[in-house]
Amino acid sequence: MARKIFPDHWSFMLGEIALYSFIVLLLSGVILTAFFVPSMDQVKYSGGLAQLQGTEMSKAFESTIHMSFDVPGGLLMRQIHHWAALIFTAAIVTHMARIFFTGAFRKPREINWLVGFTLMIMSLAAGFTGYSLPDDVLSGNGLRIIDGVILSIPIIGRYISYGLFGGQFPGDVLIPRMFTAHILLIPGIILALVALHLFLVFMQKHTQYPGGGRTDKNVVGLPLFPVYTAKAGGFFFVVFGSIALLGAAFQINPVWNYGPYDPSPVSAGTQPDWYMLFIDGGLRIMPGMFEVVLGGYTLSLNILIPAVVMPGLFFGFLALYPWIEKWATGDRGERHVLDRPRNAPVRTGLGVAIITFYVVLVLEGSNDIVAKLFSLSINDLTIMFRFLVFALPVAAFMITKRIAMGLQRKDRELVLHGEETGRIVRFKSGEYIEVHEPISEQERWVLVSYANLKPHEIGPEANEHGVRRKGLRWRRFTAALSRFYFEDRVEPVTPAELAEAQEHHATEIEAKKNAEPYDAASSHV
Hints:
Blueprint: E1 5-6, H1 14-33, E2 42-44, E3 56-58, H2 59-69, H3 74-102, H4 110-132, H5 137-151, H6 157-165, H7 174-203, E4 222-223, H8 224-249, H9 255-258, H10 274-285, E5 291-294, E6 297-300, H11 301-329, H12 345-365, H13 367-373, H14 378-417, E7 419-426, E8 432-437, H15 441-448, H16 472-486, H17 495-513
Catalytic activity: a quinol + 2 Fe(III)-[cytochrome c](out) = a quinone + 2 Fe(II)-[cytochrome c](out) + 2 H(+)(out)
InterPro entries: Cyt_b/b6_C (IPR005798), Cyt_b/b6_N (IPR005797), Cytb/b6-like_sf (IPR027387), Di-haem_cyt_TM (IPR016174)
Domain Cytochrome b/b6 N-terminal region profile: 1-210
């Protein structure tokens, strides 16, 4: 294991940021657990913060205020913990984006993609449960929204809500239950998934970017010990120091400004943390007229669709994507060399479309702040975002795909004709040409080493005996999916094309040099 070879590229460190942020979360969480009281029993505040003196609040909120103002270093630990949670989720999402755009999820890593996806879901659960523990107005309103979402689920919603809150919202058992989940259940699952993820990384070959000599049968890089051991150790302190700097210098979640939870005040300008903001945006963007009454039962589609169906489809697509692309390509072999995003234009376009869809919902989740910042009508903004949430992802997909294919054509031109030097030469015949410099073999390897995938052929619908073949509908589906991926493509340069281009250039230059006698008086270089 000490001689395990790892490729050397900065993007492989994104997963380590997530791992180190989780370590910081565990360390700071141990300190916070010693002072937090997970109880919803009501008390009157008598601590050191004058503005809250005599205010009735839960013990959870009181202990949070006590931790922030009366425990030395308590506020710093709270803020380090919160910033580490944000960076933990952000690092996982960025790491998954790198894996998605480079095709690192392909065989044999489909299961590891699911492990990473589950880690992302667990990070959302950890963040939400931790965010809700202080029992302040902001977190209480978030829990009330979640209760409304749960109640919108047909038939079982009310039972889930009753079981979660121990009765009618807010009940008196939610904070202790979330505390148990936050410090025991969810971290335990995350630790198990991290261990499984690292085990699979060690057991399988590490992916590597294309380059000279790099194939699906080898790994070009440096050993785990001592090189990556030293790099990883130093990088942990870089991440830890950055999080500590954020916690010390930038205030986050000042719960004393919001006050203890009370169902009556709901202020403007409030949003959840960024990773949950797209659901809030979905709720705001959905028209409020979509309610259906079936057999005396009201279906609140204006809540069910944006907060349950949309996230389910969104995350379901992400979880199943490795198999969706496998159906499209028909590729069953192992792939250890990564794709350049331009060489997979449809996948890259889909990724940019997903990000665009998410960003539009995040902006809608902050529509009141955006409206105030730019002096716009909040109603006009919502109407505009209702249009953009459908139009922008499609436009982003089409534009990204065309850009990627344009870059592929540029790479093809570069391989066949070389780099432009900016030097103009005049031949004896009087013709001017620009001199091109051939690229190196290493550069050429990167530009030509990608798979030439083509759309599937369905084949005959019946066999030689006229009997309809089984699975025809499935083959039609995979063929249509394959055409969507590969109907528009730029084929890589073949060795024969490269040899022909080099021979043609050499012959052309030699012929033009000898076309007619050289006239020194009128020739220039």
